[in-house]
Amino acid sequence: MSKLHALTVPKWGMSMEEGELIEWRVDVGDQISIGDEFVDIETSKIVNTAESSCDGTLVRIVAQPGEIHRVAMLLGVVAQGDVTEAEIDAFVENFEPDAAALNKPLVSEGDDSAERQVSYGAPAQAAEAASTETPAVADKAPTASAAASLADGPDDSGVKASVVARRIAKAHNINLNNVPATGRNGRVSKQDVEKAAGVSVQPARKAKQAMAEQPAQRTTIDDSRIAATPVARRLAKKLNINLHDVTPTGRRNRVTKEDIEQAARALSGLSDYSEVALSGMRKTIAARLSESKQTIPHYRVSVDIEIDSLLAQRKYMNAELGHSLSVNDFIIKACAGALQRVPAVNVQYTGDAIRQFEQADISMAVAIDGGLITPVIRNAGNKSLSQISSEAKDLAKRAQTGKLTVDEFQGGSFTISNLGMYGVDQFDAIINSPQAAILAVGAGKEKPVVRDGEITAATVMRVSMSSDHRAIDGAVAAQFLQALKGFLENPASMLL
Amino acid sequence: MATSEITTRKFDIAVVGAGPGGYVAAIRAAQLGMSVAIIEKQHMGGVCLNWGCIPTKSLLKSAEVYQSMLHAEEYGLSTKDAGFDIKKIVQRSRDIAARLSRGIDFLMKKNDITVISGFGRLAAPGELEVSVDEELTGRVSATHIIFATGARPRSLPGMEADGEVIWSAKEAMVPESLPGSLLVVGSGAIGMEFASFYRTFGTEVTVLEMMDRILPQEDADVSAAAQRAFKKRGIKFFTDSKLETLEVKGSSAEAMWADRNGNSQGGTFDRVIMAVGVVANTEGLGLAEQGVKMERGQVVVDKWSETSVKGVYAIGDMTAPPWLAHKASHEAVICVEKIAGLENLEPLDPLSVPACTYSSPQIASVGLTEQQAKEQGINVRVGRFDLNALGKAQAMGEAEGFVKTIFDEDSGELLGAHMLGAEVTELIQGYVIAQKLEATEAELAHTVFAHPTMSEAMHESVLDAYDQAIHS
C-alpha cells in the first residue's frame, strides 16, 4: 500500500461531470479517516459533502474554493506516516484520474433506491440514484447562504477599499469585511471584490469599445456642420458614430459627450452590463434544456379544465377536515391517475426502444434561488392526496434550502410545471429529458363558458402538454389530457 | 404668545435656512415670480458667511500680508517692527462678515422675500411650524419647502469642543490671543487653513491625520507636495495617526495618539482645533417624522434635490457631498428652476464642483484624481508643470507648487485638474469652464494665455500631458 492517497472529485450521478469546490472542511495537517467529510462541492444540482476514501493526514490541498474540477480530478493528498514535500510533489505531478471512476457513479452495493428504480426497468435512471453513503448536506445551504454570509458583518465603512471596489461591493451586497484585501497598503481592490462575489464587472466603456470595433456604418454624409462639443466630436470619430445619428441634448442643440455615449449604447445594442459566472446548476439547466429542445421533436396539445368542483372539494377538505391541500396536489394526483389510465404517456424514448414505466413517478418543477430543480413524488398513483400534499411540501421546502438528497430529484417519469400562482393563462414547457412529456399548468381564472347554449361563469385552468413525438403520438397525448380533465373536473373519481 | 394669535401665512416656496443654499434659493424663486419666505434661526448668510468661508478668508489675507512684510527684504523693501494685533485681525474679519450679512438682508428686501426669524420644522407636507426658544411663533404653508439647514463640525466622542481649550472652527476664528502651541486634528481644507493661519503668526502647529496622507480628498501628488510646503513653514505632521485621548488639564490639553508605526505619541497643547469633518443638521426638523428618507445622517434626494416626500426638498451640506458653499448655491438654483418648470436644466455633477483650500500655499482641484481615473479603467494622459519654471511665479516670489492635468486619452476630455501654489484658487475656474464645455486638450492647447501670468502654468500642464510643454 502506498503511503500517499488522492482525494478526488466524487461522481454523484450519471449527469455529474464536474463540481465547484465550495469549502474545505479540513486543513493541511488534519487527521482524516475513511468516511470523514472533507470538502463541500457544488454540482449542477446541489451542494454536497464528499467523504474521504482513505485514512491519514491531509498533506496537500491541490484545489482551491471557487475552482471547478472534473469528476475524478485531484483535490488533495492524504499521507500515512512521514512523507517529504518532494514525494508529494511527485505524487501530484504523476496523478492520473481513475478512468473507471470517470464513468462510474458512486452507487454502493445493495442500495435500495437503485434497486427500486431497477425494478421498474430503468437502468440508466438507477445509475443516477445517489449512494446512501453520501447523505444530504444537512448543514449547508448552497449559494444562497454563501451570498448571505458575504453580506454579513460589522459596518464596513472603515475598511480600506478603492472607490470602485466599494461601489461593486455595494451593488452586490457584499460586506467589505469579508473580502480578503490584496490591493496596495492592504486596501480592498476592485479585483478582490470581483473575486469574492464571483462577478466580473465590465466597465461602462464596454459599449464604446464595441462601437469602435465596428466598421463605419449608418449615415456617412459629412457631419462637420453639426454642433457638438469638442469631446463629443472626438469621441464620435473614435467610435465611428456620425453626428447625424445622435440626438443632441446640449445647450443650443449641441451634441454632448453624454449624447455620444447614449448613441453608442443604442447603436451597438450594448448597454452597460455586468456578468455573473454560471453556477453549476445554471450550466446544467442550459445544457440539458438546449439538448432537449434541439433533439426532441416537441409538439403541444392543450385543454381547458374547469375546476370549480375541485375548488369546492378542496375548500371543504381544508376548512372542515383540517388539510392544507393545494390545487397542485390535486394535479399531481390526477396526472398519476391519468398516467395509469393512459400508460402510453408514462414512457421514455431510448433510441432503440420505448421504455414503459410501471408506476407514475411525478417530477415537480420547483423554482429555487438561481435555477430550478425537479424533486420526485414516487408512485404518486398509489398515494393519497394528503400523502402527496405533505410530501410535495417537504420536498419543495428542502429544495429551497439545498437539502435534497440526490435520489430525491433524479428519476421521475413525468414532469409538472405549474406557473398558475403567477397568474399566467398558459405556457409551453420544454421536456425534462430523458422523460417524454411535461405538463405546463396555467392559472385558474373565472371565464365565460358556453354550456347548453347558455353563457355561464366557470373557473377555467388551461394546461398544455409538451410531448416527445418519437414516443407519444398526438392521439395518445389527447387521450391523456382527456383522462386528466376527467379526473380534475370530477375529483371524486380520483378516489377509484 | 397665545395660540390664538398664531396665524398661517401662505407662500409658493418656503426655504428653511439662510446660508448660501437657502438665500440663493429664495432669491432665484423670487426672480421667477414666486412668493417666498425664508426662515432662519440665527444669521442671514449662514455658517459660510458668518463663521466659515468669508471670515476665514479675511484672517488668511491678514496672514498673507504679514508674511509679505516678514519677507519684505527679499523684495528690496524694508519694514520696521513688522507686527500684528490679533484682536484687530479678528475684528476686521467680524466686520466683513457683519457687512455681508447685512447685504443678504438687503437682497431679501430687494427681492420682496419674507424673512421669518425662528426655527422651521416640517409639521406636515406643505406645512411648517416656526418656533423661537421652542415656543411656537408662527405657521407657514407652502407648496414647495426647501430645507437648507447645512452642517456643523463633527465632534469625536469624549473629545467634544469646549470652546476654551478645545476649539471647533467657530472659536478658532475669533481667538483673543495667539496660542503658543496648537494641535489641529484633521488635515482637510478647514484644518489646513487654520494650521496655516496660526503658523504664520508664530504658533507651534502640529497636525494629526488619520489617513495616510494630508488633504486626503486631493490628488496624491498634491498631498505630498503640500505636506512638504507646510513642513518648510514649520508645521509638524503625524499621518496615519489616530487620536486616542484628549484631556483638558487647566488651560491646556494633553493629547495621545498612535503614530503610523503604532507607537504611542503625545503632547501638551495650549489649544486644539477639531477639524474632523461635518455632520448634517437634520435633527428636530420633522423630516424623519414626515417620512423623509435619510442615509448616514444625510437627507436622501433625487437629482433635482427632491426628497422622498413630494414637495419637500433638501440642498447643500445636509445632503450628499461635496459639502461646499458653491455646491449648495448651485443646487439651490437648479432645485428652484426645476420647481418653476424651466426647461433644459442639468442636474449637478459632483465631479464638476471645484474645491479650494486657502492655506499658504493654496490648493485647488476639480474632477477626478489620477488614481480615481485609473481605477475606473480610463486610459489617461497626465500633464504636470512646476511653477518654478514660470516667469510670473518667479517675479512674485511664489515659485512653489505645480499644476497637474488628467485627460482621457480616448476622448481628450479633461477629467481632472489639481493645483498647488499662489492664487491657484482663482486659476481653477479656467479648467472648470473648459470641463463644462467639454473642451479637449486641443482647444486648451490652442487657447492663448496671457504672458506673464500664473495661468500660463495651466497651459503648459495641458501641453505636457501631450509631451509638448515649452518651458520644461
Automatic annotation (TrEMBL), chain A:
Record field: compositional bias (Low complexity): 122-141
Superkingdom as given in the UniProt entry: Bacteria
Pfam families: 2-oxoacid_dh, Biotin_lipoyl, E3_binding
Domain Lipoyl-binding: 4-79
Top-level EC class: transferase
Coiled coil: none
Cofactor dependence: (R)-lipoate
Residue span(s) of domain Peripheral subunit-binding (PSBD): 160-197, 227-264
Family affiliation: Belongs to the 2-oxoacid dehydrogenase family.
Protein name according to UniProt: Dihydrolipoamide acetyltransferase component of pyruvate dehydrogenase complex
Organism: Biformimicrobium ophioploci
TrEMBL record, chain B:
Residues annotated as domain Pyridine nucleotide-disulphide oxidoreductase dimerisation: 353-461
Keyword Disulfide bond: yes
Domain of life: Bacteria
Reactions accelerated catalytically: N(6)-[(R)-dihydrolipoyl]-L-lysyl-[protein] + NAD(+) = N(6)-[(R)-lipoyl]-L-lysyl-[protein] + NADH + H(+)
Alphabetical list of Pfam families matching this protein: Pyr_redox_2, Pyr_redox_dim
PROSITE patterns: PYRIDINE_REDOX_1
Family matches, as Gene3D superfamilies: 3.30.390.30, FAD/NAD(P)-binding domain
Top enzyme class: oxidoreductase
Co-factor(s): FAD
EC numbers on record: 1.8.1.4
Domain FAD/NAD(P)-binding, residue spans: 11-332
Location(s), subcellular: Cytoplasm
Record's cofactor remark: Binds 1 FAD per subunit.
Keywords from the UniProt entry: Cytoplasm, Disulfide bond, FAD, Flavoprotein, NAD, Oxidoreductase, Redox-active center
NCBIfam families: lipoamide_DH
Family per record: Belongs to the class-I pyridine nucleotide-disulfide oxidoreductase family.
Additional information: The active site is a redox-active disulfide bond.
Protein's name according to its UniProt entry: Dihydrolipoyl dehydrogenase
Organism, scientific name: Biformimicrobium ophioploci
